[in-house]
Write a structure and sequence with these properties.
alpha/beta; Archaeosine Trna-guanine Transglycosylase, Chain: A, domain 4; Transcription Regulator spoIIAA; seven-stranded mixed sheet; five-stranded mixed sheet; 19 strands; globular; binds S-adenosyl-L-homocysteine
Length: about 400
């Protein structure tokens, strides 16, 4: 049911600049009769229409889907999904050697609160707002229309991303598909399991960085920490690494890695390690030419940022201190609250602490299927550096 809300005069500016979030403190109206997931029309104090979006009783109270006075109906969602798919086709992401990509990246595709990942015929929907979850019937029709023969199944997985008060069951909405499901990323075969795996089953955002690692890997000894299902390891092996060790604290992740190593026939050159990466890096026993550090977000909120920076600094300092001269480190942060310059400064601080000379060779980021809405700079979350330690 559609309801109206009014915004404080001094809070209108952000909406006029097309920022897609409205925080609870900006709302002048009484919202006690507005329910989680309701569609709301947003007005200024002179009753001028500003936007339409999904409401939720949370710090971000409204996620804006349109700044125009149009209904959020089937044709609205189909147009957005069509546009998102056409952008991925421009990026040539559906090929014989690549059929994994992010089809919808929230605000970056004009659909705040929505992620859709695509794995060889299967669309996995993950909603981050109740309003978007309620819009699934529209998303379903849009996916069927837009993906056509490229769609085998739709899986809905929002149990981990919606507030606990919402009853959510993960399930197939269309077709079905046994997992793990075989898909391919830049020539690397991968078993994807969205049912039991983390997030939607795979970390698509590192595709280009994994491919880049391949270019450095020939004949090299590589340690891939925080490996999850082994994406970086496989790219290194496919490109001629001498040996690769993959490390993760999760046994399930290591099991996925091992399965992917067997799938790609690299067993002879690979070993897995179940361990805490921070402890392991504190006292590194082996000589590696290349080390990948891709930890989970150390800070999910601004109030944890300081602690997160200490974590990144420690992890990077341990690694920089111990890698052999000429060694290369691929180091990442996916914490949205730690921006590019803060992360770079943290790695520089770690280099000073480790007492080694460090050169920044490459500056890395999220790929084009994780687009950033220009009016929502918060959408830029993944950053990385390739550094050489002399
Ligand atoms: N690099 C991966 C994605 C990493 S996701 C890829 O390319 O797909 C982060 C991973 O870190 C998860 O698999 C999680 O299980 C693991 N992890 C979390 N805390 C850890 C810790 N303290 N030590 C080692 N691994 C950890």
């Amino acid at each position: 049911m559609e309801k109206n809300i009014q915004i404080f005069k001094n809070k209108v500016h952000s909406i006029e600049r097309k920022h897609p979030w409205i925080f609870s403190g900006a709302i002048q109206s009484d919202t006690s009769e507005i329910y989680d997931g309701d569609t709301v029309s947003v007005y200024d104090s002179k009753n001028r229409f500003l936007a339409r979006g999904h409401f939720q009783h949370a710090t971000i109270s409204v996620r804006i889907l349109s700044f125009e006075d149009v209904p959020l109906d089937q044709s609205f969602f189909t147009a957005k999904i069509k546009n998102a798919f056409s952008v991925r086709m421009k990026q040539n992401l559906l090929r014989s050697d690549n059929n994994i990509f992010r089809l919808v990246h929230g605000e970056g595709d004009g659909l705040p609160g929505l992620i859709i990942d695509y794995y060889a015929g299967v669309a996995v929907i993950q909603c981050h707002s109740i309003g978007m979850y309620n819009s699934i019937p529209f998303l379903y029709e849009s996916l069927i229309e837009v993906l056509g023969d490229n769609l085998q199944a739709i899986y809905s997985k929002s149990s981990d991303t919606l507030p606990e008060r919402t009853e959510v069951e993960n399930m197939y909405l269309h077709g079905d598909c046994a997992t793990p499901h075989l898909a391919i990323e830049d020539g690397v075969k991968l078993n994807i399991d969205w049912v039991t795996g983390q997030k939607t089953g795979f970390f698509i955002d590192q595709r280009e960085n994994r491919t880049l690692l391949g270019k450095y890997a020939k004949g090299k000894r590589v340690l891939n920490t925080f490996c999850y299902s082994g994406g970086f390891s496989l790219s290194a092996l496919l490109n001629g690494a001498e040996l690769v060790h993959s490390l993760d604290s999760s046994k399930k992740a290591i099991q996925l890695t091992d399965e992917n190593i067997v799938l790609n026939k690299f067993s002879g050159k690979h070993e897995s390690i179940v361990a805490d990466a921070m402890n392991y890096m504190k006292d590194l026993k082996e000589d590696y030419d290349i080390i990948v550090l891709d930890p989970p977000a150390f800070a999910k909120h601004r109030n944890k940022r300081h602690q997160a920076l200490q974590g990144y600094k420690r992890l990077n300092a341990h690694t920089i201190r111990q890698i052999k001269p000429g060694g290369i480190i691929f180091t990442f942060s996916c914490s949205q609250v730690v921006d590019k310059s803060l992360f770079t400064n943290t790695v520089i601080a770690a280099s000073i602490e480790a007492g080694r000379n460090v050169r920044i060779l490459e500056q890395l980021h999220q790929p084009a299927d994780h687009p950033i809405n220009a009016f929502h700079p918060e959408g830029e979350y993944l950053k990385g550096l390739v550094i050489q330690v002399d």
